[in-house]
Design brief:
Layout (H helix, E strand, L loop, with lengths): L1 H20 L3 H29 L7 E2 L5 H13 L8 E12 L6 E8 L6 E8 L13 E13 L2 E12 L1
Parallel strand pairs: 1-2, 4-6
Antiparallel strand pairs: 2-3, 2-5, 3-4, 5-6
Length: 169
């Protein structure tokens, strides 16, 4: 009896597997419609957020108003799909960091952002419009930076940064 029940359950499982994998254009159309609806809603929400956040600086993406998890996720997305962000004015806050390359003697400034548990960090370089950090800022200080998102090449690598940036109050 147990063997018959096991065989019956196996056959039933196979039927469910194959029926789940069959192509059903109606369900595909419904899924595409739902995806489009979700995307439209997300675009509308982003547009609303952008309109609420806009200041005299015409900021397109204000990361200072998001939770730490969302900021970390958004910065990660900026690194993965930089073409989606090029030219957008971004405002972000985090820990101030400086790195000087000893080979080229070039100084790099960045804002370091941690996720909610502070186990993971993501940084974004910024290039100040006046090329000098105002006095009173030390490495590790919390800062807010506003700049235009862009990419640049160094050697064979592409890097993301905020160009023409300034430290916001």
């Amino acid at each position: 009896m147990k063997k018959t029940l096991a065989i019956f359950m196996a056959i039933l499982s196979i039927i469910f597997i194959f029926s789940g994998c069959s192509s059903n254009s109606e369900s595909t159309d419904t899924a595409e419609a739902e995806e489009t609806s979700v995307q439209t809603t997300a675009d509308d929400s982003e547009e609303t957020l952008s309109q609420e956040v806009d200041t005299s600086d015409d900021i397109d993406l204000d990361l200072t108003s998001l939770s730490s998890t969302m900021v970390y996720s958004e910065v990660y997305n900026m690194m993965i799909t930089p073409d989606d962000y090029i030219g957008k004015i971004v405002k972000m806050a985090g820990q101030f960091s400086i790195y000087t390359d000893t080979d080229t003697n070039k100084t790099y400034y960045s804002v370091i952002i941690a996720d909610a548990t502070a186990c993971c960090q993501q940084g974004l370089e910024f290039e100040l419009a006046d090329d000098e950090v105002p006095s009173g800022y030390e490495v590790g200080d919390e800062i807010s930076v506003v700049g235009s998102f862009d990419t640049y090449q160094e050697g064979e690598l592409t890097y993301c940064h905020l160009k023409d940036a300034y430290i916001a109050a």
